[in-house]
Amino acid sequence: MIKKFLAFVGEYRRYAFAPPLLMVGEVTLEIFIPFLMARIIDHGILGNGGIQYTAKIGTIMVLMACVSLSLGALAGRFAAKAGTGFAANLRKGLFNKVQEFSFSNADKFSTASLITRHTTDVTNIQNAFMMLLRVGFRAPLMLIGATIMAVRINGQLAIIFFAAIPILATALYFIGTTAHPRFRAMFKKYDAMNATVQENLIGIRVVKAFVRESYEEKKFQENAFMLKNAQLFAEKVVILNMPLLQITMYLSILSILWFGGNLVGKEIMGVGQLAGFISYVSQILMSLMMISMIFIVLLISRASAVRIIEILDEVPDIQDTHTDSNRFPPNGSIEFQHVSFKYSLDAENFVLNDISFSIRSGERVGIIGGTGSAKSTLVQLIPRLYEATKGKILVGGKNIEHYSINKLRSAIAVVLQNSLLFSGTIRENLLWGNPNASEKEVIKVSKIAQAHAFIDSFPYKYDTMLGQGGVNLSGGQKQRLAIARALLKKPKILILDDATSAIDTVTDSKFRAGLKEFSSDTTILMIAQRISSVQDADTIIVLEEGKINGIGSHKELLATNRIYREVCESQEERIQCHVGPHA
Amino acid sequence: MSGPMRKVYGKVKPKNIGRTLRRIFSYMAEDRIQLISVFIFLLFSTLSAIFGTALLKILIDNYITPMIGNPDPLLKERFGKVLSYMAALYLFGAFSTWASNRLMIAVSVNTLYRIRIALFAKMESLPVSYFSSHTHGELMSRYTNDTDALREMFSRSITNFFSSFITVTGVFIMMVIYSWQLTILVLIMLVFIMNAVSFIGKKSSTHFSQQQQKLGIVNGYLEEMFEGLKTVKVFSYEEIAKERFRKINEELRFSADRASTFSNILMPVMGNLSHIHYAATAFVGGIFAIKGILSLGTVVAFLQFTRSFSHPITQASQEFSAVMSALAGAERIFGIMDEPIEKERGTIQIISTNNNSNEKDSQSNGKDKFWVRQHPEKSNAEPTLTPAKGKIVFENVHFSYDKKNLVLNNISFQAKPGETIAFVGSTGAGKTTITNLMNRFYDLSKGAIYYDDINIKEIRKKDLRRSLAMVLQDTHLFTGTVMENIRYGRLSATDEEVMEAARLSNADSFIQHLSHRYHTVLTGAGANLSQGQRQLLAIARAGVANPAIIILDEATSSIDTRTEKLVEEGLQRLMRGRTVLIIAHRLSTVRNANRILVIEDGEIVEQGDHSSLIAQQGRYYRLYTGAVELV
Fold it and tell me: Which member of A44, A167, A477, B490 has the lowest number of beta carbons within 10 Å of its beta carbon?
């Protein structure tokens, strides 16, 4: 796992190497200070070095501290550069990965969860990384250095805390392994609570309309309560850390005082040396404390690390395994050969079953079917937004898998049922279809989509700002903009997935008339509910429960297809729903 | 990328620290005793550490030094005793550390819990207009980024701050007692430290606040791109998105780099300043010891004190920025809590007897389950109880969302109890607004709306809404089982009533095909169902509420016409005896309405039933026949 993360350090590598090296210098200098102090005591004060000796050593100590300061500050600077650079690369890598997701990949993660992985989780990793670079090297170095110095003073005394360290290490290990699963559980509860909040924000009108405020509050309280308990459960373990360390530290110091005191009494050791020894023990235990703190931080950030890895490891299931990367689909012909689809491999039922049909380039095709007959899914297979489980799909005479995904999609425009608009001007949103389109082209498609009229009525016209999700437009206006955006692509295949549901019938028929003039060799697939929308199509496909129930023109289907007839009859009386002698 | 609604995710500098702190503490008030215990234990643990160090002087001067070359067993014995006292003291100190932390966590999780539920409760009572003018991302950030910062503050900063404060004070006092001369050195060093802290601190917080701002921008962009991921794929926008993200990510990195640098430098600077101080103390102290001005033990102890002095100061200054950003976050949270809630000035109640076996409702045929209760002028008279009939009158209603553009202009109509009124017209003509007003999500600019001849302003909002049921264009189902989602319409509905409502709306047949039928769990916003299926559930939900008035807002437009026929049947059953307002584009839906209102540009242009409007050959006629004539 660590290797995967280290790859993101990238160009900041040299900044990452610097702190540890600088630390060596800083720590070495720091370690000598108690040693020098011991000399002052033993030689300067108690011995016969006197003031001169004391002054000399004292000055050296001060100089060493100054150098140590600059080294430490530099190390801090470099650690910051490396850490924040690492985090930026990580965020970029995550974002780029998500952009490669297919619809199925995206279905696995909620928006809120994706966002927190890019922000909170990356920040946790960044902090862990920076901490490692600085304290992570400093503490062990300090530990080793101070130990060496302590042993130099008196090896026997040193045995005391050599005994203490393994005990401490074992205890810390147990704390760590117990805490980790508890923290993971806590983060899960955290996610659940946030999901509740998001749902309420999106559906606040429904909550208020059904007067369910107190119900939602109770639900939230339960979530928050569970989170509270999970957090308590996890943190309870972590706090054992500090007291353990303190006990070890103090008891070690006391035993050193006892044994060391005896040694001093026997004149084996000097008082200064004892003082120095104690100083080193403090340094050692301080380092141990730092190490345990690192341990805890790593523990908590491990949960974040796992969440980030989940995204990095996600294999986009629609890969570009094209054989001919330069080809664009030459025309808009579509062929389905025994295509079946289910959302996931372990789902029981196929959503689409053995679909086969053939459409010529430039045809107008209508698709009609009951709720849940998988019409949307069918058309989303064409630009490979989802991948067919079985069978082949051909566009322009070639298997769609033989085109590069980008070139395939550049020839196909889809207007989804819920087309999102983004913050920015109306023009910026429309240019998503073609960033290089001219103003004339933009206005032309807006007119066909019946959007130009209302855009023109705004004070800023095409420069009008849209808020998030395009909130200051009505449903029908949003749909018309989405259509215009799609038209700007000048696609070979235009797919309208119930794209006119919020548009009234008059506007809708004006649109279809304009569409006819727009392009005669664009294949148009229109999923619709109204027979009136599809009756003038060249071919109509009737879907029922994932299978094709009938194909043909309006007249043909009226004569041969029961479902089509029923639907037709249930709509406007004005359409002729009977053909020939059939009653 | 920046739009007019894009708000920065909060500043970092809190505006009124004192007031915010007090408010936070008010949420801790319930755990007052525990909090005080925390501080008591902290006091013990810090003091025991300080005394331990103080005893060093005594040990060295009174025991160890005399022991040099002098093996006195009595001295040794007393030495041992003192050490054991110290051991007891230290053990108690360690226990106190544990106790204070343990209690502090409990206090902190409780406080966070209280703040969160208060925030949520407040949010639920805010008017609908608040939600339209703030992005979701911003509001969610309160529950995540801002409470996270508070958690940091509680779990570490407060205790560290306090123990550092005690340590520094205690140590300083000891230092003065031991040697006022050396303490002067301490004061000199303090000056240096204060300057360093203030310089670094200022730089750090400027960059830090910039970082938070950039983080907010990144957050907002991520939100949009991920919500709209499918649209991004459809338009092959990936490369452009990646490039735009690269830019804002780089800006974030730059600010973060600067901010981290300064906060990273703090510790080495402080640490080494204290080393310099240590060195100077050894220097000067050594000379004093030689001259006999101070005892050796004093110098050694003092040296140890200097260690204990600067460490907490460094720690405290590190915590400072964490505390500041936590307070800024708390201010944003409290900002929401201070927002004015939906005002309630209505006094008239509409109560439901759906659940009581009251003799009153045995008269009704199951429809008049809502009753209007009014307290007359004289306060000691009995409230009157009349069955809710569902009569609606709109009288000269004018309304605008932004106080500038009129969305509804002089709308007047009547709906007698049990009538079905249909609204048709082009998109954006104001039909959805009518439902917003009926629910009192917004209040009128001019005119009045009457429910059973009572101005709806005088009816309690919650009661009014309870007696209406809506099926909106966006269905908004919640995470939970199918049963729970339908029961949302009326929490007291029995399982049988829920299933009956589902049968009426013809949702039952597809529910039976789900993996766990009514107990199938729906994921966020009902994503594993098709649009049409969601609509059917929403209709069942409205049905189970057994309302006096039903409002259908383009409900049937996402269901194919074949299924719609079945739904229409169910709806007919549902609508019988109730007043219904239907807003639709599908002319087949409105055909059977008692009255059709054609709305254009916020005004009623035509009124009448289907045949009379057709005869008029006006707007309705054109709308109706437009669908057919263009071949």
Answer: A167
Query: Which residue from B minimizes the CA distance to A109?
Result: B226
Inter-chain residue contact B234 with A385, CB threshold 8 Å: yes
Burial of A493 (0-12, 13-18, 19+ CB in 10 A): buried
CB contact under 8 A, A69 and B428: no
**Whether B3 and A567 lie within 8 Å, measured CB to CB:** no
Q: What is the pTM of this model?
A: 0.73
Contact B90 A250 (CB under 8 A): yes
Task: Provide CB contacts within 8 A for A335, sequence distance 6+.
Answer: A357, A358, A359, A393, A394, A395, A397
Q: Are A42 and A35 in contact (CB under 8 A)?
A: no
- Residues A353-393: tens digit of each pLDDT: 899 999 998 888 999 876 555 788 888 899 888 888 899 99
Question: Mean pLDDT across chain A, nearest whole number?
Answer: 82
Set of chain A residues whose Cβ sits within 8 Å of the Cβ of B223: 111, 115, 468
List of residues 6+ apart from B598 with CB closer than 8 A? B424, B425, B604, B605, B606, B607, B613, B618, B619, B620, B623
A75 near B CB under 8 A: yes
Euclidean distance between the first and the last CA atom of chain B, given in angstroms as a whole number: 43
| Separation in Å, CA of A550 to nearest CA in chain B | 15
* A457 at B interface, C-beta within 8 A: no
Kindly determine whether residue A62 and residue B283, on different chains, have CB atoms separated by under 8 Å. Answer: yes
Average pLDDT (B370-388) is 68
Which among A547, A542, A538, A548 has a CA at the least distance from the CA of A568?
A542
Instruction: Classify residue B378 by its DSSP letter.
Output: S
What's the gap in Å between the CA of B601 and the closest CA on chain A? 12
Looking at the predicted structure, is the pLDDT value of residue A64 above 70? yes
Q: How does pLDDT run across B284-302, given as a tens digit for each residue?
A: 888 888 888 888 778 878 8
CB proximity A116 to B under 8 Å: yes
B505 burial class (0-12, 13-18, 19+ CB within 10 angstroms)? buried
For A231-240, A530-539, B38-47, which range has the lowest pLDDT when averaged over its residues? A530-539
CA nearest A271 in B: which residue?
A: B65
Residue with tokens 């589902």: B502
pLDDT confidence of residue B252: 92
Higher pLDDT, residue B363 or B37: B37
As a whole number of angstroms, the distance between CA B448 and CA B398 comes to 9
Name the A residues in 492-531 with CB < 8 Å from any B CB.
498, 501-509, 512-513, 529-531
Could you tell me if A1 and A309 are in contact, meaning their C-beta atoms sit under 8 angstroms apart?
yes
- Residue in chain B nearest A369 by alpha carbon: B560
ipTM of the complex: 0.78
Among B489, B496, B461, B490, residue whose Cα is nearest residue B354: B490
Q: Which of B89, B105, B231 to mutate to test the interface with A (most CBs of A within 10 A)?
A: B231
Q: What is the pLDDT of residue B361?
A: 36
Answer whether A307's CB lies under 8 Å from A184's CB: no
Identify the residue with better confidence: A172 or B176: B176
Residues forming a β-bridge with A524: A364, A494
Give the pLDDT band of residue B56 (cuts 50, 70, 90).
confident
CA dist B206 and B259 (Å) reads 8
Q: Tokens for A194, please give them.
A: 């946030």
Q: CA-nearest residue of chain A to B211?
A: A84
